[in-house]
Design brief:
288 residues, alpha+beta, 9-stranded antiparallel beta sheet
Length: 288
């Protein structure tokens, strides 16, 4: 998978002054566009669109300083419809406008070209299983919250504290299949999963039961899931599990992610300092 990702990066580099389609990159990487965007974001630490933007502005910066083209020519070459739009984007990345950068020969910022490789540390193994599930419902309480990459998510913590115990009890009683009990469900996330972007969060159960009128529900179609298990300090071990799934497991296995909610079943220690977790990721067999 990493070899194909690097071929896609080569494709990007050869077309930074042209229109770049994510679907074309996914074909080069021999995977779906959805999985390609997820993998790229996890490995690069930024969305695909942001990487392309930064690489274009890096090359544009060099041309601005060289002075061989007009600023408008540089803007058009790298996909900006006007000099004003180019100037705003240029300043956002480089901290200075293109005209001033050319006049003063200012030092500019650079987005290095990326190359992906797999580092195998060998310190621990990742426990997983593949599960086929029929259609089910996620039933509970839902909130729109910002994404937090590390540490406790205050919006989620406040949301859960606001659910009364009687409602939590009624939700828990609806659980009738794996993963059992109260789970955390993330759905409808932004493409690049940048910190601060929003997602739908459910404090819920997985069930086939009828949905009470005062609860929120998400119907999940039948499909295949990769189920990962780990334990460690809460919440960092769980957040690192998400990262490791996309930076280590997917590049080494014949599956790719597919659209759908991600489900986390967590059991905390008495002092809430440690946790055991199951992470359910919707997957499908990768193209051969």
């Amino acid at each position: 998978m990493l070899e194909q990702l690097n071929r896609a990066v080569e494709h990007i580099e050869g077309r930074l002054d042209e229109r770049i389609e994510a679907a074309d990159l996914a074909r080069i990487a021999m995977t779906s566009e959805y999985h390609f965007r997820r993998m790229f974001s996890a490995l690069a630490g930024m969305p695909l669109s942001e990487y392309i933007r930064r690489r274009r502005l890096t090359l544009a910066g060099a041309e601005v300083l060289a002075g061989e083209r007009t600023l408008l020519d540089v803007a058009v070459r790298y996909g900006y419809a006007s000099g004003e739009a180019f100037a705003r984007a240029f300043r956002a990345m480089h901290g200075i406008g293109p005209g001033e950068a050319r006049r003063t020969g200012a030092a500019l910022r650079s987005q290095p070209r990326m190359s992906f490789r797999l580092v195998v540390e060998g310190s621990s193994s990742m426990r997983y299983r593949i599960v086929a599930k029929e259609e089910f419902r996620v039933v509970g309480k839902k909130a729109r919250v910002p994404l937090v990459h590390e540490g406790v998510n205050p919006a989620i913590a406040d949301f859960i504290r606001g659910i009364d115990q009687e409602t939590v009890r009624r939700i828990a009683e609806l659980s009738d299949q794996e993963p059992e009990g109260i789970v955390s469900v993330s759905d409808n996330l932004a493409e690049g999963r940048a910190e601060g972007t929003e997602l739908d969060y459910y404090h819920a159960v997985v069930t086939g039961a009828a949905v009470p009128g005062d609860l929120d529900a998400l119907v999940v179609p039948a499909g295949t899931w990769a189920v990962f298990e780990n334990s460690g300090p809460f919440p960092l071990a769980l957040q690192f599990l998400w990262r490791d799934v996309f930076t280590q497991w997917f590049p080494s296995n014949s599956y790719r992610s597919r659209p759908g909610p991600e489900i986390l079943r967590t059991r905390l220690s008495p002092d809430a300092g440690e946790a055991e977790a199951e992470l359910w990721i919707p997957v499908e067999r990768a193209m051969s």
